[in-house]
Design a protein that fits this description.
The complex is a heterodimer of chains A (467) and B (505).
Chain A lengths: L1 H6 L1 H18 L6 H18 L7 E3 L4 E3 L1 H20 L1 H5 L4 H20 L3 H19 L6 H32 L4 H7 L4 H18 L8 H7 L2 H26 L4 H25 L3 H22 L2 H32 L10 H4 L1 H15 L5 H14 L4 H26 L14 H19 L2 H9 L2
Antiparallel strand pairs in A: 1-2
Helix pairs in contact in A: 2-3, 2-6, 3-4, 4-6, 4-12, 4-15, 4-20, 6-7, 6-12, 7-8, 7-12, 8-10, 8-11, 10-12, 11-12, 11-14, 12-14, 12-15, 13-14, 13-19, 14-15, 14-18, 14-19, 15-17, 15-18, 15-20, 15-21, 17-19, 17-20, 18-19, 18-20
Chain B lengths: L4 H15 L3 H30 L7 E9 L4 E7 L1 H20 L7 H20 L3 H10 L1 H11 L4 H28 L11 H6 L4 H18 L8 H8 L2 H26 L1 H6 L1 H20 L4 H22 L2 H32 L10 H4 L1 H14 L6 H15 L3 H29 L11 H4 L10 H19 L1 H22 L1
Antiparallel strand pairs in B: 1-2
Helix pairs in contact in B: 1-2, 1-4, 2-3, 2-4, 3-4, 3-11, 3-15, 3-21, 3-22, 4-5, 4-6, 4-11, 5-7, 6-7, 7-9, 7-10, 9-11, 10-11, 10-14, 11-14, 11-15, 13-14, 13-19, 14-15, 14-18, 14-19, 15-17, 15-18, 15-21, 15-22, 17-19, 17-21, 18-21, 21-22
The chains are: A mainly alpha (467), B mainly alpha (505).
Chain lengths: 467, 505
């Protein structure tokens, strides 16, 4: 029994927080937004800190649920990201009527992701996935008075349902072939017989939708643009990050025998994602749409790491997600402040930003450099290791395409830098006031961007966890 | 000496810059930092010469620490004569750059911060003996250039800044492919390695070398204006603010030349031999094309930028010829061109500051109002066309001699073609210098006499500009008059290189 509590510690703690929030919402007390937010943030901090204390591994519920040190680390990363997003959306939430509901929905999806990560059975995986995606649709609609927000929610739930359908179809056929959904059984049963491969492709397509790899990316830009910034950042970092973790570990452990089958698939998806993501990002005016396409391109780079197919590949993917979390959240942090205070979301609005908000400009610039992979930021190390892992397969055409794509991506990141530093603007965005909480969030992100690369500890730790 | 000091010093001072307030404090910090860098590098040279006697190792002051253990990436630094010459050049140019930007008022803190950060990248690159560390510092130096040009530049600065950043990034993308190829084809105790010294001991098959050499060479070549990837040079240099132009032409282009030599040629000598014909042809085109393109320019900065393309062609020619003398010449040419072109840009910047034009046609008779600036301008020009007694002559002569040593009609023809460019150089330099310095006084109406001080008063260089010019002049003269100091310094480095190449021949 103690085993149960220890192995599921992170899930149980999160469930407890969800219930606390639920009772607070249902109780007769009228909570002030300020106090409520403080309590939530303290709870999330405790949740994050507690995740580091116990490191165990084992299986529960007849091998349905597994946990190990790597999974705990991944969950801690998601916890950290959620905390940062929560701190960043402080200003936005203060003006919102439904704070408790926001957290209830968000933490439910987080719980779903935890179960998805810990699944050792495709059924469990599917349940976690659904818990992780359905509340997200409600979250996308959280700008209640905006029609675009409802549109985003609608698009998200439709595409999500379609992806789940594909996954479920694939899972059912895999069950038909292998007679089991347990990961260990599947690993043994994996073969290149046509039906198995066919269902495997369906699985990959489902994954592709969730991580928005080209050609399964069509929902991304609209949903990102319509959703509130906090939800966009959650979608693009936490939701996508968790999906990448699951996909990598499923490909590397369950379907390791099919490596030569999925290598080409991943390489193709990577090239398409990088190319399409980059080319479309160049043309965008809305900064959220822009980030949607840039995140598609980033997924392309992650897929290059996955094609490495070895120890280095796995570690570089997990490591990159950590860096991507810091960098992307720093970008979203600045955007959410500007959007909450001034309501401006166009790249052109950021012209002359440096004159009025030098600190925020530097934060945004450092984060964009990190996304572009410029040293000494951590993004350089992340990209370098991803591409290096991919190069280990001796497919130098793929690596050259990827490396040149980094140049294309630099172009559009520099476009924003140019707008902020160099372009003149008669009416730049006025000085944005920051409260303690976004400041803290930004400090965490910037520290992460500066330290995780130059100090090798994070990568070495991840490397040591992957067996 | 601890080589890491060369990194800590600029880093510490650039962080200090963030704290201090006001133009006076900021430029004092920058100046102290630049002087300290120069002092440190001179001390380094002194120690190097002391230590070298009786030492058999190729690189001195080595430090080798694990950085990323899992990938066998190390922080490995050390210097030989070639890298020392580059470090010295960097220190000279940085100090001169800080001095000529003394009156920089617009966003001064950011300006000097980026300048110091750039120097950090350059030092890091030159001391690295690990390809990962080297690549890291190569890219560190890209973005500050973009910002320096885009924010403080003139003309079509945004376009030039983007072009430069993207082309240099494309260069480093190619370098990355080359480096990863080297990494995966090295095996030391079952581990792949980025370590330059370790890789040089490996026997990488010629077929693989031929595959990866173009990536590394073209990648680094883009940095050093390899034809046809030179197009960022004229735009970038002419749009940049003075100090950034000096840095770009003086140091940044040398990152590429050094990389071509140290990484591409040293680690893949078979391929260097295999591709030498192409390298020689391309560098001859760059030399001639650069020279003729310069003749057509009317803007002083464009003149110097295109002549940089031509002069950097000599560096690549020297590397492509693969004889000991020619490689010595290439290194000398890197240093010489660095000093000379930095001086040129500094002087052009001074003229521009006073007259607000860089058009040759609008200027004339400056000798009357700015005697010091004009004299320096003449000396820089003479150095560029290779007058004996100045550094340009020594460097170019060594390259030509080295090239001639390579037997064969093709190599001799290439040498002659390259030599012929000197005539063209003389034409454009003498024409530009003559019409700007001599003749009746001509100052465009756009610049008020108040700005340039009027005839007879205040127009000439200030103390900071004089110091900067004298500093670079000392370098040029030393190299021109006592070239053996420099050849002594770099010779063991080239010999080590030649041993590796000699194994092939």
């Amino acid at each position: 029994m103690s085993n149960f509590f220890l192995l599921m510690q992170q899930e149980l703690l999160l469930t407890a927080i969800i219930f606390i929030l639920l009772f607070m919402k249902l109780s007769a007390v009228e909570w002030k937004p300020k106090n409520l937010l403080l309590i939530v943030n303290v709870l999330l901090t405790i949740n994050l800190a507690a995740g580091f204390f116990f490191n165990g591994f084992g299986y529960l519920f007849g091998d349905m649920f597994q946990t190990n040190e790597l999974l705990r680390l991944e969950k801690n990363m998601l916890n950290l990201g959620t905390l940062i997003i929560s701190l960043q959306s402080y200003n936005w939430l203060m003006k919102h009527e439904h704070i408790a509901e926001f957290y209830l929905l968000m933490l439910s999806t987080l719980l779903g992701m935890f179960f998805m990560l810990s699944s050792h059975n495709l059924l469990m995986f599917y349940v976690g996935l659904e818990l992780a995606s359905i509340p997200l649709a409600a979250l996308a609609n959280f700008d209640l008075d905006k029609r675009r927000s409802s549109e985003a929610a609608m698009k998200y739930i439709m595409s999500s349902a379609f992806a789940s359908g594909l996954l479920l179809f694939g899972i059912s056929m895999i069950y038909g072939v292998a007679g089991s959904l347990n990961f260990s059984d599947l690993q043994a049963a994996a073969s290149t017989q046509p039906l198995f491969l066919f269902s495997f492709i369906l699985l990959i397509a489902g994954f592709g939708f969730k991580i928005s790899a080209v050609p399964f990316h069509l929902w991304t830009a609209d949903v990102y643009e319509g959703s509130p910034v906090a939800v966009t950042s959650y979608l693009s970092v936490i939701s996508k990050g968790s999906m990448i973790f699951v996909m990598t570990s499923v490909l590397f452990t369950v379907f390791d025998k099919l490596f030569y089958n999925w290598y080409n698939m991943m390489a193709l998806l990577a090239v398409l994602s990088m190319l399409i993501g980059n080319l479309f990002a160049i043309r965008q005016q809305n900064i959220k749409r822009f980030l949607a396409f840039s995140s598609i391109a980033q997924v392309g780079f992650i897929l290059i790491g996955i094609t490495g197919g070895n120890h280095e590949g796995f570690s570089s993917v997990v490591y990159f997600v950590l860096i991507y979390l810091f960098s992307n959240l720093a970008v979203f942090g600045v955007i959410s402040l500007v959007s909450a205070e001034k309501g401006k979301e166009n790249i052109d609005d950021y012209k002359g930003f440096y004159k009025t908000n030098p600190l925020l400009t530097w934060i945004l610039a450092i984060a964009l450099f990190s996304l572009a992979g410029i040293p000494p930021t951590a993004g350089f190390f992340g990209k370098f290791f991803l591409l290096l892992a991919g190069a280990g397969r001796n497919n130098y055409l793929l690596i050259t395409i990827a490396a040149l794509n980094m140049v294309v991506s630099l172009y559009y990141y520099l476009r924003i830098i140019k707008a902020m530093f160099m372009d003149a603007n008669e009416r730049p965005i006025a000085k944005v006031e920051m409260t303690w909480s976004p400041k803290l969030a930004m400090a965490i992100c910037v520290a992460g961007i500066v330290i995780t690369g130059v100090v090798s500890g994070a990568y070495e730790y991840i490397y040591s966890l992957i067996k | 000496m601890n080589l890491t000091l060369l990194l800590i010093l600029p880093l510490a001072f650039s962080l200090l810059l963030l704290i201090v307030k006001g133009l006076k404090q900021v430029r004092t910090v920058a100046l102290v930092s630049a002087v300290a860098q120069l002092g440190l590098s001179l001390f380094l040279v002194y120690q190097f010469l002391q230590e070298r006697v009786g030492s058999s190792s190729a690189f001195l002051f080595e430090q080798n620490y694990t950085w990323y253990n899992a990938l066998n990436i190390r922080y490995h630094v050390g210097v030989d004569g070639i890298s020392l010459a580059m470090i010295l050049l960097t220190a000279f140019v940085v100090l001169a750059g800080v001095l000529v930007s003394w009156k920089q008022e617009k966003l001064h803190k950011e300006f000097f911060f980026l300048l110091l950060f750039l120097s950090l990248g350059a030092y890091g690159f030159f001391i690295s003996l690990d390809l990962f560390t080297m690549f890291f510092f190569l890219e560190v130096a890209v973005i500050p250039k973009f910002l320096l040009i885009g924010i403080w530049g003139s003309g079509k600065k945004e376009y030039s800044a983007l072009k430069l950043a993207l082309m240099l990034m494309a260069g480093s993308a190619l370098v990355f492919v080359g480096l990863s190829g080297l990494y995966f084809n090295t095996s030391i105790n079952g581990m792949h390695s980025f370590d330059l010294v370790e890789i040089s001991k490996q026997n990488i098959s010629p077929a693989l070398q031929n595959l990866f050499f173009p990536f590394a060479f073209i990648g680094f070549g883009i940095f050093t204006a390899l034809f046809p990837f030179h197009t960022w040079v004229p735009d970038g240099h002419s749009s940049a603010p003075t100090a950034a132009s000096m840095f770009l032409a003086g140091i940044s282009m040398k990152l590429g030349g050094y990389g071509c030599l140290r990484v591409a040629t040293y680690l893949m000598p078979d391929a260097a031999e295999h591709y030498s014909t192409i390298i020689i042809i391309l560098s001859c085109i760059a030399i001639l094309y650069g020279a003729f393109a310069t003749m057509m320019q009317t803007d002083l900065k464009y003149i110097n930028a295109y002549s940089s393309v031509s002069h950097c062609g000599f560096v690549l020619l020297g590397i492509g010829m693969l004889t000991k003398t020619s490689i010595n010449g290439a290194v000398l040419q890197m240093v010489s061109h660095g000093l000379m072109t930095a001086l040129f840009f500094a002087v052009i910047g001074m003229i521009y500051e006073r007259t607000h034009t860089r058009q040759v046609a609008q200027l004339g008779g400056l000798l009357k109002v700015m005697p010091f600036i004009s004299s320096v301008f003449v000396i820089a020009g003479l150095c560029s066309l290779g007058l004996p007694g100045l550094s340009g002559f020594v460097a170019e002569m060594t390259v030509f001699m080295g090239s001639w040593q390579r037997a064969g009609a093709f190599y001799h023809t290439a040498t002659i073609v390259a030599c012929a460019s000197i005539v063209v150089t003389a034409v454009y330099i003498l024409r530009a210098v003559g019409s700007v310095i001599n003749g009746p006084l001509k100052i465009p109406e756009t610049s008020s006499p108040l700005l340039w001080g009027g005839v007879g008063g205040g127009a000439d260089a200030g103390w900071n500009e004089k110091t900067a010019a004298v500093l670079l002049l000392v370098g040029i003269l030393l190299m021109g008059l006592v070239p053996f100091w420099f050849t002594d310094l770099i010779n063991p480095g080239t010999e080590m290189l030649m041993q590796k190449i000699g194994l092939v021949k």
